[in-house]
Amino acid sequence: MSYTEFTRRGFLKFAGVVGLYGSFLVPGKLLAMEKRGPLTPRGGGKMKLPDPVLDGEVSLERTIHTRRTVRSFRSRALSLEQLSQVLWAAQGITETGGFKRAAPSAGALYPMDVYGLIGKECIEELTPGVYHYTPTGHTLSLIQEGDARRTLAEASLWQMWMAEAPLNLVITAEYSRITIKYGQRGVRYAMIEAGHIGQNIFLQCQAMGLEAGIVGAFDDSKVTQVMGIKKTHEPLLILPVGYVR
Ligand SMILES: Cc1cc2nc3c(=O)[nH]c(=O)nc-3n(C[C@H](O)[C@H](O)[C@H](O)COP(=O)(O)O)c2cc1C
Questions:
Q1: Most buried residue, 46, 67, 126, 227, by most Cβ within 10 Å?
Q2: Is 25's pLDDT higher than 60?
Q3: From the CA of 87, how far away is ligand 1's center (Å)?
Q4: Which residues surround ligand 1 with Cβ inside 6 Å?
Q5: Residue 129 in contact with residue 41, Cβ under 8 Å?
Q6: Atom 20 (ligand 1): residue with closest C-alpha?
């Protein structure tokens, strides 16, 4: 089934809602390497990511102006600093001494998680696998090993262009973390939040000379299975990231 056919069937009803818009430090990299513990699947060990850069060279207006959904990526690898920066833009802690994040969240309940599906030789020094980002401490943990890009693309209605991207970011929602306060309306809020995170990723990529795509057409349970993540973490958006071909 093509993406167009899929959208026609109405599976992307939430797309309009989530459409709301909401030079790296080398010493940081060395620090990350020093602090890295042994990364073993299922969260055994956390790796401290390099600190994010808080001042870029490209204006916000230019990033908005040049942002486009890209569906063709080069096989060129990304650096750990680039991965760190894009994860920070997605869900990094931005409140000094606090817990608030780069993207807004209804009631500051943060029902979202961001996973990175990384291919073979796609991000320097990281074995291929599925990684979970923890905002507190700005760390990564390994969920499962292996280059699952093709199976992720197949689970996304055979949008095989996704498998070319060195990094696929998967944004998930755990609805119970927000419905506990807002009831069923919390589901809507989580979907809106996914849109904000997605746009942050898009704009951060633009500011770093990278490009991103965005995918909402996928089989939820297959994506969860491919990623080896909890069933309660429901995938809402996938953003393939890399250099444009
Ligand atoms: C919620 C959502 C889901 C989307 N799903 C897909 C998808 O599965 N595959 C795809 O190729 N593009 C997908 N897109 C991208 C749109 O097709 C794209 O944003 C639109 O064509 C406008 O182009 P632009 O993003 O370059 O401005 C999606 C966009 C949104 C907001």
A1: 227
A2: no
A3: 20
A4: 3, 12, 15, 18-19, 68-69, 71, 159, 214-217
A5: yes
A6: 69
